[in-house]
Amino acid sequence: MGELLGYARTSTKEQRLDLQLDALRVAGVKERYLYSDQASGARKDRPGFVQCLHDLREGDSLVVWKLDRLARSLRHCMELLDELKTLHVSLVVLEGPFAHASPATSEGKLLFGIFAAFAEFERDLIRDRVLAGLTAARSRGRTGGRRPKLSPKQQELAVQMARGGTAVTEIARHLGCARQTIYTALAQAKTVVD
Predict the structure, then answer these.
(1) Catalytic site residue 106?
(2) Of these residues, 11, 61, 73, 102, which one is catalytic?
């Protein structure tokens, strides 16, 4: 019988892996076979996941807390299931509607396909809501992105100092910012400096 390799994933650093890792340990995954990432499930290049797949051997089992921890798109999920089948590796899902369903059976394939489709649908809904929110914000005059490092008064001061012959390095030091910030402010003001 092969080893149990466990994989856990959260999308952001604010989320914690504890719940998933605890569940994997209870399922019998040894500490040295725990792999994790803090990245979107849509990404295929997650370092922990890539290492987990690399370490899987014939007869091993890949254990996840929920199926959506593996992939967020139907295509990616189906590719993973095919890859696991080729490697003769079984998949164990601990929680959710597909817990203990085997993707090796016809029913399991159907269930996993349906779940993956819903996960992809959820991801598309989230993206659509974000885009709608950005559009609504833009219509109200708000733009996204980082706030300027310099206030309008500081930008004016930078322009005045540059026109007075002060070196960019000195202006940056005086305003407590990087030289590139000063160059950007001067470019926006269309001020020519040496």
Answers:
(1) no
(2) 11
